[in-house]
Amino acid sequence: MLLSNSLAISHEIIKRVVKQGDTVVDATMGNGNDTLLLAGLVGEKGKVYSFDIQEAALKNTEKKLREAGVSGIVELICDGHQNIDNYVPNGIRAVMFNLGYLPKGDHSIATKACTTIEALKKSMELLMDGGDITIVIYYGGDSGFEEKESVLEYIKTIDCKKYSVLVCDFVNQINCPPIAVCIEKIRK
Amino acid sequence: MLLSNSLAISHEIIKRVVKQGDTVVDATMGNGNDTLLLAGLVGEKGKVYSFDIQEAALKNTEKKLREAGVSGIVELICDGHQNIDNYVPNGIRAVMFNLGYLPKGDHSIATKACTTIEALKKSMELLMDGGDITIVIYYGGDSGFEEKESVLEYIKTIDCKKYSVLVCDFVNQINCPPIAVCIEKIRK
Predict the structure, then answer these.
(1) Domains of chain A, with CATH numbers?
(2) How far is the C-alpha of B22 from the C-alpha of B48, rounded, in Å?
(3) A:B CB pairs within 8 Å
(4) Cys bridge to A138: A32, A68, A100, A122, which one at CB 3.0-4.6 A?
(5) C-alpha to C-alpha distance for B81 and A2, rounded to whole angstroms
(6) How far apart are CA B82 and CA B51, in angstroms?
(7) Is A173 touching B (CB cutoff 8 A)?
(8) Is B12 part of the contact surface with chain A (CB cutoff 8 Å)?
(9) In this structure, are residues A172 and A128 in contact, taking their beta carbons and an 8 Å threshold?
(10) How crowded is the C-beta side of A167, counted as CA atoms within 13 Å?
């Protein structure tokens, strides 16, 4: 199916933009699925920085990467993604965000509007021209509504001369389907 | 650039879904660019039905198709797209809509919410499973606002068990950038 869901859209964008040898970021490591995807795309000459504030996320992801034989490409960082500029160099090709709480994890530990937007601003600065940030906004049930609104409001204010911002929304679904966002740095 | 504009998104979707030998529809012929694209995609064994209410559109498009040597694949129909079911058989792979007036044409002759939505409903019925309708909504300046609102409201009400509806919006741009919509018939 061409139009399946927002996560598939974000993966599609990432697969098209990320090349062997690139430096990229998983801003929300979680269970490490996006980190693993990125490691495969950048290959042995590339580099993935992956962030999470929960030790459990790093432990699970480390195991996943080791089993796939790609540990050497990835730096796992136990810190908030709003501190991305302390770890990641300029000129990155892509940054992936999955907003919300860790699937099957503690709903009280989730990304928050304030730190997410700070991380987005810093990521936009670090992007190379033509690079992309993908955001999958999960919300619904007991959480995520305030962050969703804040992020959607913020991205409307991004300078259109420097960045192109696309929002992809499955508008006829029930139960708060995730929203996909892509921020692309315009080539000069 | 990955994220250029809504027209590019609609073309991208069409190129991925339409195959040689398919039957497809250009619901808004205009200058014939989408008709030509579709003819190339379906090839000699395929069929394109293309609608416009303006004779000038048919004349320009006929010339364009003849020069490209693909006239035989295309049926040009001088009628409103809301009458699609009088001409087009069941089981079509894709339908393309570009809403608004003819570029460089008379702004008073434009698609209208009422007939557009009737054409969308009939197109959805005619689609094969897995088939797609793309809509590029042009608005701004002196026209198109009412149609845009009506179409965006209507598509939210489409049965999510039968169709997936995606809206792609460039949210940080000025001057009313066109909106891309895709309606996909879910495979049973």
Answers:
(1) 2-185 (3.40.50.150)
(2) 8
(3) 88
(4) A100
(5) 25
(6) 10
(7) yes
(8) no
(9) no
(10) 20
Report the complex ipTM.
0.92
Strands (E), B123-173: 127-137, 163-170
Nearest by CB to B172, which of A2, A3, A156? A156
Say whether A3 and B187 touch across the interface (CB within 8 A).
Answer: no
Chain A residues with CB-CB distance to B17 below 8 A = 2
Binary contact (A164, B182; C-beta < 8 A): no
What pairs with residue A183 in β-bridges? Answer: A133, A165
How far apart (Å, rounded) are the C-alpha atoms in residues A105 and A84?
A: 23
Scan for tokens 């995609």, then name that residue. Answer: B41
Q: Check if the beta carbon of residue B11 is closer than 8 Å to that of residue B132.
A: no
How confident is the model over B12-31, as pLDDT tens digits?
999 999 999 999 999 999 99
Closest CA to B61 of B31, B22, B17: B31
Q: Coil, strand or helix: which one is B148? A: helix
Angle at alpha carbon of residue B21, lines to B16 and B23, rounded to 5°: 80
Q: Which residues of A touch B137 (CB under 8 A)?
A: none
Distance CA A117, CA B90 (A): 48
Residue in A closest to B12 by C-alpha: A2
Who among B1, B155, B167 is closest to A184 (CB)? Answer: B1
Q: What is the pLDDT of residues A32-73, one digit of tens each?
A: 999 999 999 999 999 999 999 999 999 999 999 999 999 999
Report residue A21's pLDDT band, with 50, 70 and 90 as the boundaries: very high
List the one residue out of A119, A161, A114, A146 whose CA is nearest residue B173: A161
